[in-house]
Amino acid sequence: MDNPVRDVVAFLTKPAWYTGVFCLLLIASIVIALYCVAKLPEQRRPEHVSKWVFRFLIGAMWWQQTLWKLPPYYTDQPDKPFGATGLAHWMKIMGGSAAIPAQADFVNHIVLPHFYWFAPVVYSLEVLTGVSLMLGAFVRFWGVIGALQILNLWLGLYNAWGEWPWTYFFLLVLQLIFAQDQYGRSLGFDALLTARPSHNRLLDLVS
Prior knowledge:
The chain is mainly alpha-helical. It has helices at about 5-15, 15-40, 45-65, 85-95, 100-110, 115-135, 140-155, 165-180, 190-195, 200-205.
């Protein structure tokens, strides 16, 4: 029987290229956090540690959710018919269950017929959102981008059988909290950027 501990261990030990990449991201996040502690005294408060843990965990969730939509076919089961698994499968569900008819029409008549144009965009945005949270890099910007992605899922899967819409709404709120409270400035790359005397207004908008 599956359980959270077994799932996490399986995810972290699966012999695949993306496991190695995740381990590198984990190491990089720890190194950045330790560097912040060493160089920035204000980063040594306990609340920064908790913010780092929270955003890394959600970033890891984003990363894990990209693993069933891997390119070039954007599924983890490329031997199955198109639309039976992976990203195309969920896009088909979205096309039949969206809360707003215009969204369903867009998915059915534009996205699905041109799936291999849209799939790389979806995959890239999810990967970058996860990496941003894990490293604490440009979190204000990617927090908003992540929130928009979750908003799309919330509305698109609102009427899907077996889905609990509040799940996506909670994730939407989390992304906005990360952006509003600038979680990247807690033991993240954003803390190092904004600590530089020469940092500019653009960095304040995105980090």
